[in-house]
Amino acid sequence: MIYNLNPEKILFLDIETVPMAEEYKSLPDNFKVLWDKKSDQIRTKESESARQKGLDSPEKLFIRAGIYAEFGKIICISAGYLRNKEFRIKSFFGDDEYELLKEFSGMLEKHFSSKDNLLCAHNGKEFDYPYIARRMLINGLRIPDILNLAGKKPWEVAHLDTLELWKFGDYKNYTSLELLAAVFGVPTPKENIDGSMVADIYYKEKDLEKIVKYCQRDTLTVAQLLLCYLGRPKIKEEDIKTIQS
């Protein structure tokens, strides 16, 4: 079935998220209480791992808050698509989550609302898609149909996931995008940044441009990986076009 996919009908994406505040102490009092409860659950679930990493209190664990839609926010969504040989990529980013989500939603509704359009992300079904949908609801935005699962049968859900496709039904292990890129010989720019560093780069370094470039790199890598799955040629560097507006 995967070999019948038309890559030009797919929107590839990646998101970058951070905690809703720079530090635990900056949280409103009610959210401090709620995070305390959440961090208790995290420590109970992975007590040994948390202790080894020194994440033994709500304050120290708050560095992870960005992965939870209730305690985090999206600062960048990079989306890319293929037209002939050209890969066009556009990023929606900024401090105002409402505005970037509104712009991204408008792009989905205008250009990717057809029933034969698909979304593709790495670990998208567990993270990117539900996170975007939840943050849209929190921001009072309507969820675009391609993201909305309500009332849909499994075969009507227009979501691809390069991690899920790689698992072939094996759910024991997580395989990172970085590892799969290396396995398939997908070239990625060598940058000293990974997901665990995004919050510090955003809040402390205030270098959103660096985060956007990192997000775009991952979006391109997702597209390259799916093309490898399909047995198709990789995207060439000269065929990558960044859309500014």
Comma- or semicolon-separated keywords:
6 strands, alpha/beta, 245 residues, single chain, Nucleotidyltransferase, domain 5
Average per-residue pLDDT, rounded, comes to 92
Spatial gap, N to C terminus: 35 Å
Number of strands: 6
Counted up, domains total 1
Which class in CATH terms? Alpha Beta
- As laid out across the biggest beta sheet, the strand order is 5-4-1-2-3-6
Looking at the chains present, what oligomeric state does this protein adopt? single chain
Main sheet: strands, sense, barrel: 6 strands, mixed
Element layout with pairings:
Blueprint (H helix, E strand, L loop, with lengths): L9 E10 L9 H17 L1 H6 L5 H4 L10 E12 L2 E8 L3 H15 L6 E4 L6 H11 L20 E3 H6 L9 H7 L14 H6 L4 H22 L10 E4 L2
Parallel strand pairs: 1-4, 3-6, 4-5
Antiparallel strand pairs: 1-2, 2-3
